[in-house]
Amino acid sequence: MYALKDIDAYRTYMYDPLHRQIDAIGLPLVANMISMDLTDDPDPEIGDKIAQVHGDRFTDHPELLDLVENLDSYEGSGVPEDGSKPA
To answer: pTM of the predicted model, to two decimals?
Structure first.
């Protein structure tokens, strides 16, 4: 678990090269993944902002999207609500 100051720090963390390395090594080892983002931020739009960070990562890093699409299941922020693969 990580504690970060705000959504900008979260975006920085999510885009850090070390996080990408962890994704590249870890995602092929799992079949099912649930990504959970917890916050005490009172901003009523914080959930949408977190989902946007995830969605941006999938767009900016198609190799990450490929890893996620190869999982049996993936749930969490940034996943389309219609159940389709992240886009």
So the answer is: 0.81
* Residue 74, φ and ψ in degrees, nearest 5: -145, 125
Distance (Å, whole) CA 66 – CA 74:
12
Each residue's pLDDT, cut to its tens digit, for the chain (87 residues) gives: 788 999 999 999 999 999 999 999 999 999 999 888 899 999 999 999 999 999 899 889 989 888 988 899 988 776 655 444 543
For 33, the 3-state DSSP assignment is strand
- In this structure, are residues 86 and 68 in contact, taking their beta carbons and an 8 Å threshold? yes
Please work out, in degrees rounded to the nearest 5, the angle formed at the alpha carbon of residue 70 by the alpha carbons of 78 and 75: 30
Structure tokens at 5: 């100051």
**In angstroms, what CA-CA distances link 45 with 4, 41, 42, 49, 63?**
17, 9, 9, 6, 28
